[in-house]
Automatic annotation (TrEMBL):
<keyword id="KW-1133">Transmembrane helix</keyword>
<feature type="transmembrane region" description="Helical">
    <location>
        <begin position="292"/>
        <end position="311"/>
    </location>
</feature>
<feature type="transmembrane region" description="Helical">
    <location>
        <begin position="351"/>
        <end position="371"/>
    </location>
</feature>
<feature type="transmembrane region" description="Helical">
    <location>
        <begin position="209"/>
        <end position="231"/>
    </location>
</feature>
<feature type="transmembrane region" description="Helical">
    <location>
        <begin position="252"/>
        <end position="272"/>
    </location>
</feature>
<protein>
    <recommendedName>
        <fullName>Quinol:cytochrome c oxidoreductase quinone-binding subunit 2</fullName>
    </recommendedName>
</protein>
<feature type="transmembrane region" description="Helical">
    <location>
        <begin position="132"/>
        <end position="154"/>
    </location>
</feature>
<feature type="transmembrane region" description="Helical">
    <location>
        <begin position="89"/>
        <end position="112"/>
    </location>
</feature>
<feature type="transmembrane region" description="Helical">
    <location>
        <begin position="320"/>
        <end position="339"/>
    </location>
</feature>
<keyword id="KW-0472">Membrane</keyword>
<keyword id="KW-0812">Transmembrane</keyword>
<feature type="transmembrane region" description="Helical">
    <location>
        <begin position="175"/>
        <end position="197"/>
    </location>
</feature>
<feature type="transmembrane region" description="Helical">
    <location>
        <begin position="21"/>
        <end position="39"/>
    </location>
</feature>
<feature type="transmembrane region" description="Helical">
    <location>
        <begin position="45"/>
        <end position="68"/>
    </location>
</feature>
Length: 394
C-alpha cells in the first residue's frame, strides 16, 4: 500500500470571513435578547439557560472526546481531532457567558427565595448545597478545570505540529487520565446545577449521565455537519475521507442507542416506583402540550436515527448521515427546552421568540470562537505519529 500524503491545504483560508459573520450574528442575537429582557426578564433567563446548556454540551462532549482519543491512542480520529480540540479550547472565554445566569438566579431557581426555604423543610435541608455563594463558587471550579484541560490539550497538540516532539503525546495522555476522572465529577454536578435543581424537590441520580448521553450524541452530529461545511468550501476533502464519516456514523448510531438506554432507564425507574415527588416532574412534561415535544425528540433522536442508520450502507451515505445529524441536533435543542421551560410555563407549552434570538446570539458567539481558534493553526495535527494511519481510512 502506498504511503498516504497530505494533499490538502491545511491552513484555513484567510479570505473566508466566516468568523466576523458569526460574531455579527451573535451580537445581533444577544442585543435582540437584551431587548427581550426588558419586556419579560423571566422569559429571557429561561430562554438563555436553554441555549447556554445546548451549546455548552458540545464543548463538554468535545473535551471528553479529545481525552478519550489520547488515552486510547486512537488512530482513526487523528484527522478530525483538531475540530473538537478547537471547540474545547475556548472554555476560558465561554465560561463568561454563565454570568447572566448568576444575575438570573432569583428568577430561575426557586431555592434562592428565603421565604420559600423558611416554609419548606425539603429546601431547608438542602441549604448547605443549594445556596447562592456556593453555586457561584462551583461554576468557577467547573470552568477553571475545563479551561485548563481544554487549553492544555489544544496547545500541546499545536506545539507538536511545530516541534514534532512526539513526547507531547505522553504528556497529553498524562493530562487526560486524571482529567477524565475530574471531568466526570464536574459534568455531573454541572448538570445538576444548571438543569436538575430548577425543580429542587425532584432529583435523579442518573441525571448527570443523561445530560452526558445527550451531549455526546449531539457532538457526533455536530462534527459530521462541520466536516460537510469544510468540504463545501473545498477544505480537507482528501484528508477527511468517507471512511471517517462512516466511523462518525457508527459512533452516532452507537450513542443513539446509549442515549435511549439512559433516558429510558431514568423514566422507567421513576415510572414503576410511582413516588409522587418523582413522577410529578414527568407529569408536568407530558401534559399541556409538552407531550408533543417529548414525542418529537423520542422519534427525532432515537426511533428515526436508529432505523435509518441501522444498515451499514447508510452510515457512509453523506446525504443520509447529514439529514439525520440535523434531525438529532434539532431534537437535542427540543429536549433541553422540554426540560427547562415547564418550570416557567407550567400551565402549558408556550413558545417565545427569545428562544430563537438567544439561539442565534449564543450560537453565533460559540461558532465564532470555534472558527477563530480553528483558523489559528493547522486544521489537522500534521506531525502526530498516528496521522498516517488515520489517512488510510477508505
Amino acid at each position: 500500500m502506498s504511503k498516504p500524503k497530505l494533499t490538502d491545504t491545511l491552513d484555513f483560508p484567510s479570505d473566508l470571513n466566516i468568523t466576523k459573520s458569526l460574531f455579527g450574528v451573535g451580537v445581533v442575537g444577544l442585543l435582540a435578547s437584551g431587548i427581550g429582557y426588558y419586556l419579560d426578564h423571566g422569559q429571557f433567563f429561561f430562554s438563555y439557560l436553554v441555549n447556554f446548556t445546548f451549546f455548552s454540551s458540545f464543548a463538554l462532549a468535545s473535551l471528553f472526546f479529545v481525552m478519550v482519543q489520547h488515552l486510547t491512542r486512537s488512530h482513526w480520529s487523528v484527522a478530525i481531532r483538531r475540530i473538537p480540540e478547537a471547540i474545547s479550547s475556548n472554555f476560558w472565554i465561554w465560561g463568561l457567558f454563565i454570568i447572566p445566569i448568576f444575575f438570573g438566579m432569583h428568577t430561575l431557581f426557586h431555592w434562592t427565595h428565603a421565604d420559600a426555604i423558611a416554609h419548606d423543610p425539603v429546601l431547608e435541608g438542602k441549604v448547605p448545597y443549594l445556596n447562592t455563594p456556593f453555586f457561584i463558587v462551583r461554576q468557577f471550579i467547573y470552568f477553571g478545570l475545563w479551561s485548563y484541560l481544554g487549553y492544555s490539550l489544544y496547545s500541546n497538540s499545536v506545539e507538536m505540529d511545530e516541534t514534532g516532539d512526539w513526547g507531547l503525546q505522553t504528556l497529553m495522555r498524562k493530562v487526560s487520565g486524571p482529567g477524565l476522572f475530574f471531568f466526570a465529577i464536574t459534568l455531573g454536578f454541572a448538570s445538576f446545577d444548571w438543569l436538575m435543581v430548577l425543580d429542587p424537590h425532584w432529583y435523579s441520580t442518573i441525571f448527570g449521565v443523561y445530560y452526558f448521553a445527550m451531549s455526546f450524541q449531539g457532538l457526533f452530529a455536530a462534527l459530521i455537519l462541520i466536516i460537510f461545511f469544510l468540504w463545501s468550501k473545498n477544505l480537507l476533502t482528501s484528508t477527511i475521507k468517507k471512511g471517517h464519516i462512516y466511523d462518525l456514523g457508527v459512533q452516532l448510531f452507537g450513542f443513539t442507542v446509549f442515549y435511549a438506554y439512559i433516558a429510558f432507564s431514568q423514566f422507567l425507574l421513576i415510572y414503576y416506583a410511582n413516588i409522587p415527588e418523582e413522577t410529578l416532574w414527568f407529569l408536568e412534561r407530558l401534559s399541556g402540550g409538552y407531550e408533543y415535544l417529548a414525542y418529537f425528540y423520542l422519534f427525532g433522536r432515537f426511533v428515526i436515527p436508529f432505523i435509518v442508520l441501522l444498515p451499514k450502507r447508510a452510515k457512509s451515505n453523506s446525504k443520509v448521515v447529514g439529514s439525520i445529524s440535523v434531525l438529532i441536533l434539532v431534537s437535542h435543542f427540543v429536549e433541553l427546552y422540554w426540560i427547562v421551560m415547564p418550570v416557567l410555563d407550567h400551565h402549558g407549552f408556550h413558545f417565545n421568540w427569545m428562544s430563537i434570538t438567544s439561539f442565534f446570539g449564543l450560537g453565533g458567539i460559540f461558532l465564532g470562537l470555534f472558527f477563530r481558534k480553528f483558523k489559528q493553526s493547522k486544521m489537522v495535527p500534521v506531525k502526530d505519529p498516528q496521522l498516517e494511519s488515520s489517512l488510510n481510512k477508505h
